[in-house]
Structures are given as C-alpha cells and as structure tokens.
Amino acid sequence: MCHHSGADSWQRGGMRIPRGAWMAASIVLASCGTSSVELGQADADSATTVAPAPTASPTTSTTSTTEPASSTTSTSTTSSTTSSTTSTSSTTTVAVSGLVLDDEGVPVNGQTDGVLITPTGWITPVLGTTSTGWRVWTPCGNEAELQDGRLIEGADIVLDPGHGGSAEPGAVGPGGLREADLNLEVALRVRDRLVGAGYSVIMTRQTDVRLPIVTRGEIGQALDPIAFISIHHNAGTDSPSTEPGTEMWHQIESSDSKRLAGLLYEEALSALSGYDASWVSLEDAGAMSRPNREGTDYYGVLRRPGPVTSVLAEFAYVSNASEEQLLGQTEVQDALADAVLRAVDRFVETDDPGSGFTLDPIFRGYGPSGAGRTDDCTDPRLQ
Ligand SMILES: [Zn+2]
C-alpha cells in the first residue's frame, strides 16, 4: 500500500529505491513541559556540534566543503533629489550562495524539493542540481555541493525523533533516561510498523545526533509527506492524575493536523492506559494548539514544516519516575508504536475526527519567536 501521491518518484536514475529502505534523520521540536522557550530555540545558548551520523553506506573519504551560507550585504545608498539629499543605509540579508535567509540569518523554509541521503547517512534537502551532483541544505542550514548520495523525492510519513546529541538530551528522567534516546527508540519502532504496513518513511535522524529545528522542518517540506510527526516525551509537571498526561500539539490553521492529533491522542491514551503508573498531567492535557505572538504556531516543528500536516506528540512524562520506569520498557515502546500506526491508518483510511481536544488551553506564554538554532552549529562530514 502506498499513500503518497508521488510514489513513482522513488525511481530515479534507473535505480529502484526500495521504499522504506532509507530512514534517516529529521527535525525536531522540543518543547518540554512548561518551558516558555520555543522548541526551536531550546538549546540556542549551548555551543554544539552536530555529531557525525553512523555511516549507513560508507564510500568516499572526500572531505565535504561547506560554504558559509550567511553573508550580510550592507548597502549604502545615497539618493539626491533637487530639493533634498537623503542617505539611506539598509541592511539586506542576502545569501551569496543562493540559499535565502531571513533577517536573523536562518534559512527560510520551503526552498527545497526532495532530499539526498548522503554517503555518511545524513538527510539533506535538495536545493538544486549541479553538473556533477546536487546543491543541498546541510544539517546546520548551510549550502553544500555533493556528488554522491541517494535522492529521495517523497515519503508518506516523516518521523522526527525530538532532540539528540550530547548537547540536546531533551528531558532527563530521575533515573537517567534521556528523552532524546527514548524518542529515537519509539520512532524507530514506529518506522518499522509503518514500513511493514506499506508506508514509505523518512526519519529526520536515526542516530543520536543534534539537528536544528529549521532543518527538521525543511526535510518535512522537501518530502511533502502525508504527515510529519515529531516524537517527544514530556517534563515539567508533578500534578498527579488518574490518566496519562498525553499532549498532542497540532497546527493552528490545519484541520488535518487537528484531526491527526485527535487520533494520535485517542490511540496513545488508550495504549498507555493499559499500564499502571503514578501518572502526572497538566489539567488541560489533550489535543490542542499554541500560538506565538504573531498568531502562528509557537512550536517550530509545527510552523517550519509549513504546509505539511504536522503534529508534535508528547506521549507521557519521562520526568516522572513512575512513567520513566514504564517508558524504558520495550513492551511499552512497542505499544506506543502500535498506537501511532493505528492513528495513521485511521487518518488515511477513515474520516474519524479523533478526540480529546482541549477547548481552552492554559496560557503558556508566547516566548521568543524566530531562530531555528543554526547558531553554534558545525556541519558534519557529509560524504
Ligand atoms: Zn522534547
């Protein structure tokens, strides 16, 4: 079964690429709990380096040359008229390389089409082609030219395991379970189930690496999937609850995102409720949305994938010892993965509306808006 309208795009250059064979990296969002910091900025203050991904298909030893994408051109214009002279100094952000940046130097989402899986296993959205290969958007949001890789033009589902790398563990449970690791474990299980059911899947990351949110979002846009699902586990509350405090965040303007969030909520809540734990929750837990000051989506993993239907899943609280113990069990991780598969199937095959919608979410603040955390990011070797 293939749900992606662009399924034929898996054939390229005479090479048939088996669907589901490429699960690689992705984008994340990290908002855990009550933090007022935009997910896209959660670790903006930490100097981090994107760690190399394990080599999926080792080949060349060529060192990648990555051009700095940001170049600020300051233009000073003096214009004279007969009656007055005005001097105007304007600063315009221009990407000399061709990559369009916003006024904070962060690449604007929506510039790519398809992704190239590099010889070192990174997922790089494709900006264009060259006479010998491709121009790509690097993990840190720069531009690079690559000669080798596998082009993937579309996917049914993009999975985004939140956080990653030593600099961005996400929430850490009292027993030491790192959210980034748990997110990846669950996402890998979700991937296997989706692929088993016939969906093509790309992961924004499939190893323990950091990836800026802006790049996660771009991978989503580049692959134009049915849905982009960012997988997280929560932190930040200690209010006891009789049921799991599952939160599913959906895009404000998208009825599809809202429906998928309701279906994911229904299935995840049902799956977790089958286990005993001393649950914690916020009183408004459910399927809901959160605006930023501009009225668009607060969470970068919902805003940056743009037109792609996206949901940010916070399954349960890794910060709560009882739930951490539960979530560390493979049986429970499998149950969550089964729940996501059921939700996706229902989203695709039925008109079920989902449930658990929070009508009046607690005001969580606007926080800053903007950056996608490409600062302090060092690109890995791509080929
Ligand atoms: Zn998180």
Biggest sheet features = 6 strands, antiparallel
Q: Could you give me the name of the CATH homologous superfamily of the domain at 7-45 and 154-349? A: Zn-dependent exopeptidases
The tally of strands reads: 16
- In the sheet with the most strands, the strands line up as 3-9-8-7-6-10
Per DSSP, what share of the residues sits in E-state strands of 2 or more residues? Answer: 15-25%
User: What Rg is obtained from the alpha carbons, in whole angstroms?
Assistant: 21 Å
The best one-word shape is globular
Name the helicity range: 10-25%
Helix-and-strand structural type: alpha/beta
The name of the CATH topology of the domain at 7-45 and 154-349 is Aminopeptidase
The appropriate CATH architecture of the domain at 7-45 and 154-349 is 3-Layer(aba) Sandwich
**Element-level helix/strand string:** EEEEEEEEEEEHEHEEHEHEHH
Unreliable segments (pLDDT under 50, ≥5 consecutive)? Answer: 1-96
Q: Regarding CATH, which class of the domain at 7-45 and 154-349?
A: Alpha Beta
Q: Mean pLDDT across all residues, rounded?
A: 80
